[in-house]
Amino acid sequence: MTPRFQKLDTKLVHAGEDRASVRGAVAMPIFQSAMYETAHDDGEPRYIRYNNTPNHEVLHRKLASLENAEAALVTSSGMAAISTAFLSFLSTGDHALVQDCLYGGTHGLVTRSFAGFGITFDFIDGTDPDSWKAKLTPRTKVIYVETVSNPLMGVPELEAVVAFAHEHNLVSMIDNTFASPANFRPAEWGFDLSLHSGTKYLNGHSDVVAGAVIGKAEQVDAVGRKMRHLGGSLDPHACYLLHRGMKTLGVRVARQNESALAVARFLEAHPAVARVSHPGLQSSPDHARASRFFDGYGGMLSFVPAGGVKAAERLFERVTIPLVAPSLGSVESLLTRPAQTSHAGVPREDRERIGIVDELVRMSVGIEDLEELIDDLRRGLD
Q1: How far apart are CA 300 and CA 297, in angstroms?
Q2: Is 150:103 a contact under the CB 8 Å cutoff?
Q3: Catalytic pick from 46, 61, 62, 175?
Q4: Rounded CA gap, 74 and 239, in Å?
Q5: Cys staple from 151: which of 14, 186, 194, 362, with CB 3.0 to 4.6 Å?
Q6: pTM confidence score
């Protein structure tokens, strides 16, 4: 009898494991084999590009369990998950509705690559559902949002996204990277597909690039078929690293939720900071929505130093605990200026239109001692 684990932290450790097939090994071995003698259970060859080796399958079962979804698959990167998901449901002549504040890589895919496929799009304000219908076309097939927008920490009207998708027969997609399954599980709210950069919170240790697609079996299967053609499968060793990192997701994110809110409150009160964005702050316009949807407010925040770009650069030079690096979700605290890194490819006018000014600092709060981290930031700002 397959055990049915109820709580997230138990699922992270035990869900999807098949210790009988690995002769009782407590840690999942790396099956570093490109092909296998015997076929998969469904009669297909077992092959790395098909994402059906033992290392892939344990991740698929675990990821689906974490978000209480029907199915899941892993990919070679977060962008492989996002681009393959889009191309599974959009073709020449089709149209998508896309949230206006996006991760820079997704923004580039939509604004630069869609045209080559004959796909059109419109940006939507995720907080204004009444404005979405005006941008519908007869060929609209997908609506896409981020659980917490990168890098401004906005929270869309997520229930409204699902309702709008159902009403107009659209595939609803959400990038759940910032929240992670610890804080938000899209399947529970009716989303068709949840997408992740597994590089970030899922892995949590800055040592692998990976992606994930989680959701309804029919849609996940469609993405899996497309991925076989596009080739975005995940190597077994990367599967192992992602699998190992996920075991501690619950304890990591609980610590990061707590620390990030404390850091955001500290920054909000500091005279050298002009503006702080974090959905846990009472002052945030997204606080009520975040409180309704999420189990925690997340480990991400952004802020604008009062002294502009030079003040941001001085802060980067002075701090000793946060690392200046363009990623997030790991055990280390990280600082970056999105205008230079994640959103450098977004035209300046587009960045500034939605509030990504050059001096904006994005911070991913790690698991360091909170008092020491805040003291370090205080010295950097003072």
Answers
A1: 8
A2: yes
A3: 175
A4: 8
A5: 362
A6: 0.95
Mean pLDDT along residues 318-339: 96
Residue in 36, 49, 100, 255 annotated catalytic? 49
Active-site residue, 49 included: yes
* Amino acid code (one letter) for 154: G
Would you say residue 327 lies in a domain?
yes
Residue 1: pLDDT over 60: no
Residue 1 lies in a domain: no
Residues 253 and 319 both lie in one domain? yes
**Neighbouring-strand partners of residue 334:** 323, 364
pLDDT for 2 equals: 53
Mean of the per-residue pLDDT values of the chain? 95
Distance of alpha carbon 94 from alpha carbon 170, whole angstroms:
12
Q: How far is CA 53 from CA 23, 46, 113, 289, 368, in A?
A: 16, 6, 31, 40, 36
At 281, is the secondary structure helix, strand, or coil?
A: coil
φ, ψ of residue 287 in degrees (nearest 5): -60, -45
* Bridge partners of residue 145, in order along the sequence: 174
Clarify whether 200 is annotated catalytic.
yes
Q: Which of 193, 229, 225 is nearest to 212 (CA)?
A: 193
Q: How far apart are the first and last CA of the chain?
A: 60
* Catalytic-role residue among 200, 216, 252, 337: 200
State yes or no: is 42 an active-site residue.
no
Active site residue 62: no
Band (pLDDT 50/70/90 cuts) for residue 3 is: low
Catalytic residue among 61, 103, 192, 240: 103
Q: At what angle do helices 54-66 and 236-246 cross, to 10 degrees?
A: 30
Final residue of a structural domain among 246, 276, 305? 246
Beta bridge partners, 303, equal 276, 361
Entry field: residues in the chain: 382
Q: Which domain, by its residues, includes 170?
A: 8-246
Which amino acid does the sequence have at 255?
Answer: R
